[in-house]
Prior knowledge:
- A hairpin with a 7-residue loop joins strand 6 (451-454) and strand 7.
- This protein has a two-stranded antiparallel sheet with strand order 1-2.
- Helix 4 crosses helix 13.
- It contains 23 helices and eight strands.
- It folds into two domains: 2-287, no CATH class; 329-491, no CATH class.
- By secondary structure, it is mainly alpha-helical.
Amino acid sequence: MKKIKAIHIRRVVQLFFFLFFLALFIQARDPLSQIPPPDLLLQIDPLAAILTMVSCRTFITAFLPALVVIVLTFVLGRSFCGWVCPLGATLDFWNRLMPAGLKMRGQRQWKYVMLFGTLLLALFSIQAAWLMDPLVIFTRSLSLAIYPLAIWGVNGLINTGFEIGFLEDFAYSAWNFFQGWLLPIAPLHTTLLTVTLLIFVGILLLDQFGRRFWCRVLCPLGALLGLISNVSPFGRKVTPECPGCGTCSDNCRMAAIEEEHTRTRRSECILCMECAVNCTVAGTTFTWRYQKKGQEKFNFGRRRLMGTLGASVVLGAAWQTEFQPRANQQYLVRPPGAVEEDDFLDLCLRCEECVKACSSTGGCLQPSGTEFGWNGFWTPRARMRDGYCEFSCTLCGEVCPSGAIKALPVDLKQKKVIGLAVFEKSRCIPWEQNIECLVCEEHCPLPDKAIKFQLEEGREKLPFVDPLLCTGCGICETKCPVIGESAIRITSEKEQREVM
């Protein structure tokens, strides 16, 4: 019974952490509570912490919680992957819905290639946690794909209820219930949804090559925790009662138990304890007594090391020397509180927490594609035609886990200049058609109005921007009644960035 209880405890703990991190994600909206911090999942991420701090050459206090995970790994081995990681929990749940396919034991060294490759890139000041870190991938998938699709589904069901007479009261109740914590104020649409969703589904489908294929073969965070767990005093021990039937090795989701059954790769074991439960003769137990005998020695291999080094140098050089066209840079508007661009690219995890939080208010932040170069892929930028920066909203800085966007008090944020509005007179209704239009000036939130009018004989009021007052909030571009591209656009001119 104790063995069964142990695995049930793991599943309960795993479900608790999954729901806990999901709750933190959902509550990252207005009004925002900082207890517990909404970005806690990424702040406890040791890989993101190391890669970000190495890339920007600065110690970041926001990542101090990651030390807790490192210390626990020294004590309890790679238990984070089996008990806490939400992507690991997702893979376990997926495996129950769609059983794993082929059983593959080899190729586990690839995750160390990913780990050392990303570390080498960080030395070149290229932060690549956003590419391979599982916690970043999980958060980004929630922000850009899963959450918007869930909102669409919930809204669809509620609207269907409104259309069916006898379900109308239920639909009203459901609307009131979900509006309080799940549904955003405005409809939620995100760019790069398809790309993000395909990557997430691809990670799930990798299980057709074996259970937890991502964790065993590709995950650099798992590789980092695996290296630390080699010195953990807690782990699997084979008792004299072991009959050598092979049940434990055949059913090990991480292929951590070798075929001779007595040897356990401590760096691969996530302490799921299924081997102890499945053993009918108590041939497996978990103990604090460290078994040095039979444990593997880490051997990355000279060829693999040189290949990783060479690939990282080539990729880093190509990344840093890629031509960056300046034509689009004038429309690259970062959120208020963003640090200088080079530091921003080093710090930003591309987790899209800011995009999700912004979508609950104005919805101006969206992830970039390749329009500003590959280095800016998935980084947040303001698309003012689709939504403006709320005058009193500071959510993006409050949910940023790495400090790429600094948290600003409301009074300072309202004065922060993120860009400058510029009129395209050939599209502006008063300038081009001599027809009165006051929309941009009426919506300007500043007390003194950054948009003013000049008077010319025989013409309607002609709007112009006072560059000394404009903060680049973008509401004028959003509300401009011209069809298609706005007659007034926000550029990055006069932007004010924070110091890292």
